[in-house]
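Repro:
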Amino acid sequence: MDVRGRNNVVLTGRDDGPVVMLAHGFGCDQNLWRLVTPKLAEHFRVLLFDYVGAGKSDLSAWSEERYSTLDGYAEDVLEILTELDLRDVIFVGHSVSSMVGVLAAIREPERFAKLVLVTPSPRYIDDVEYRGGFSQEDIDELLESLESNYLGWSGAMAPVIMGNPDRPELGEELTTSFCGTDPEMARVFAKATFLSDNRADLARITLPTLVLQCSHDAIAPPEVGEFVHAQIPGSVLISLDATGHCPQLSAPGPTSEAILAFASESG
């Protein structure tokens, strides 16, 4: 299967506009961008896709060797852009895809014009003078729970990740998304996500970068967004008045407006 089919690539929006590539996070697929896509599509060519192992991707193309580190997901991004012969792309990555975009931009910076990092975290585990939000024991327990009972873990964790307990339908949607992912593929992606440490990569980014964080996020607390902003030279930090880790669902209006304003800036 070609790259377009492998990653379920979908192009929408203006044929003559700059390209905005929307990259989903762990346990999700391109469907979680549906509330911000229409606004962006008025001004840009929007590129949606699923990582191998997610959504409607070709699951036969998945291998544990390739996808056991974030480099494998960065390869997906770069192979899609190569297949479509795209450069100067505005890359929008949610959650772990923020660091996937960082890795891809370091490898082939000519493919990208700007980066938008939505609720990013370069390291989830606390370290000396660094707060990631979790202890090593927290992450060990999270991964053990995921491996032993993935459906149960999904039902418990998705509402925590989503936040917004007053809007339970959001947590239910994320639970459904998680539960639709093959447990073995989810286990490998989870380890690649929660055990990663990309702090040293941030200073290597020379592209204009927007860091979008939520004011209340159990997965990537505000200190993490501030750290990312401080490490990427010249980056812009916006704190959305939003709760949870998925503002493209919980606050699609402010999220799309922030992306649109940054992506439309010249220079």
